[in-house]
Design a protein that fits this description.
single chain; alpha/beta; FAD/NAD(P)-binding domain; Arc Repressor Mutant, subunit A; seven-stranded mixed β-sheet; 18 helices; 38% helix; globular; binds flavin-adenine dinucleotide
């Protein structure tokens, strides 16, 4: 079995900058990602874009090429297409690569799994033809595939960025339905002064909105009561705006209202989590260097609380310094000296992050379903009505509800319904989400065939 000082999961900005720093310090480093090339979400396929004009994705996208190039030239052991499905608390990692399970051993483990889009359980969200705007962007970046005449609905900078990328590439859009509540603009005002320290970021966001408004695409703001139209395929979107009803036709509906940390790896190994009230999401509890409740496991980047691409880069560097210190490659003084620059840079961005978090905080009726027939657990097809029945039968926490209704037991392992189920139970119990908790997760974190398990090379592991 291969053995490394540190194994890093994820090659987004956090994982790549951590790997570079650790290898500079002299550690042996393995980096695993299920993706075929490094870059993570933001810099996906930046080194070999299938698009004829990747510059249309924006300067931020292209800026990742330098980091990816430095990473590719470094001496880290890069393992593309490695889907991690089990983390052992003894430093062992099991991952699937080319339909075979492999195993490696590390002294320190850094998890940089990034974010996922917050599920948006509106009526009809499970119909064919409905997907997330981020998935549409993944198709664009990795395969140059686009969805014509789609309706984009939701809120937040990533939504506006993807719409702007579509517009620049000349892909027809049926409409944009913005759900940012009016009251969010008022609530975010007190944070504006500190956000102005990152005035470039503010102008970037305003620029995206201007691109959308200047296009001829129908753009509706302050939309509420969203509902996908269609019986066996999405054909449009119905919504309310200032008391009036609207219905837009489109070939697909692309939803997005922010991102939340990707929890499954960290949850599967039982790391302590906290509920972040500003981001309305769970995140791993970490020290300033990213060390978790399990001392040889570290988490950095969006996976430890949403910080954005630059924040992820700084968090990755800080985690590398913490790990380097733990490995005896530098002392506390050296660590703290090197940590000064990334610490300062991430502190400079925190005001802007707070502003964005408040401005684009999702409307409550978009986070939790309101109609009884709306599916909550997509894998097990459990509706709001089914879950309420389970609660009324005595299931008061997510694991009890899981046992009673099977919600969260499907192949996505609660990725889609986890936050919704915790939120629903909090509402029904009239208690904070933090007191309700989250599903207890177990490996394997992906579907494994019996053949793959049987081919495990190490007899001890197979048992
Ligand atoms: C769909 C989507 C699109 C986004 N697009 C943009 C954008 O265009 N611009 C922008 O500014 N921000 C974007 N973001 C936000 C962006 O994720 C962050 O700002 C930034 O990329 C976070 O960096 P990170 O290193 O923490 O994680 P990421 O960049 O998300 O990288 C995490 C990596 O971990 C890998 N991974 C996760 N779990 C496993 C596992 N079990 N086994 C193996 N590998 C695993 C993933 O494949 C991924 O490559 C996007 C987010 C999402 C969810």
């Amino acid at each position: 079995m291969q053995s490394f000082d540190c194994a890093i999961i994820g090659t987004g900005p956090a994982g790549m900058s951590a790997a570079l720093r650790l290898s500079e310090l002299g550690a042996t480093v393995a980096v695993l990602d299920r993706a075929p090339s490094p870059g993570g979400q933001i810099y996906r396929a930046v080194a070999q874009s299938p698009l004829a004009t990747p510059d249309k994705l924006g300067a931020d996208y292209l800026s990742g090429a330098d980091l990816v190039s430095a990473f590719s030239k470094s001496n880290v052991a890069w393992m593309p297409g490695a889907d991690v499905w089990h983390l052992g608390d003894d430093g062992r990692i099991f991952y699937s690569q080319d339909n075979r399970t492999q195993e490696l051993q590390c002294r320190q483990m850094l998890i940089c799994p990034g974010a996922m889009e917050r599920p948006m359980p509106i009526p009809g969200w499970t119909l064919p033809g409905v997907m997330t705007a981020g998935s549409a962007q993944v198709m664009l970046k990795s395969d140059a595939m686009a969805i014509s005449d789609a309706i984009f609905a939701g809120s937040g900078p990533l939504l506006y960025l993807i719409v702007a990328q579509y517009l620049r590439l000349g892909i027809p859009i049926a409409g944009v339905v913005d759900t940012t509540p009016r009251q969010n603009y008022v609530a975010a005002l007190p944070m504006l002064a500190s956000a102005l320290r990152q005035v470039g970021m503010l102008f970037k966001g305003l620029g995206l909105l201007r691109e959308i408004q200047k296009s001829k695409v129908p753009f509706y703001r302050f939309a509420t009561d969203l509902e996908v139209v269609g019986t066996d395929h999405a054909q449009g979107l119905r919504f309310q705006q200032d008391g009036a009803s609207y219905e837009l036709s489109g070939d697909a509906v692309l939803l997005h209202h922010g991102v939340v940390p990707n929890l499954n790896l960290a949850r599967s190994i039982g790391l302590d989590h906290v509920f972040e009230p500003d981001q309305l999401a769970w995140r791993v509890k970490t020290s300033p260097f990213g060390q978790t409740s399990c001392p040889h496991i570290w988490v950095a980047g969006d996976g430890a609380g949403i910080v954005g691409a630059n924040g992820a880069k700084h968090a990755g560097e800080l985690a590398a310094l913490g790990i380097g210190c733990e490995l005896g490659l530098l002392d506390d003084v050296g660590r703290d000296q090197l940590a000064e620059a990334p610490r300062k840079a991430s502190a400079g961005q925190s005001g802007f992050r707070r502003f964005i978090d408040r401005l684009y905080q999702p409307a409550p009726d978009l986070m939790l379903p309101t109609r009884d027939d709306t599916i909550v657990c997509r894998c097990e097809e459990q509706s709001l009505w089914d879950l309420r029945q389970g609660f009324q039968s005595g299931a008061r926490d997510p694991n009890a509800l899981k046992s009673l209704t099977r919600c969260g037991m499907g192949p996505c392992q609660g990725r889609q319904c986890g936050h919704i189920v915790s939120g629903l139970l909090a509402k029904w119990r009239e208690e904070p989400v933090a007191d309700v908790g989250y599903y207890r997760l177990r490996s394997p974190l992906r579907l494994l065939t019996l053949e793959e398990l049987a081919r495990l090379q190490d007899g001890e592991s197979a048992r």
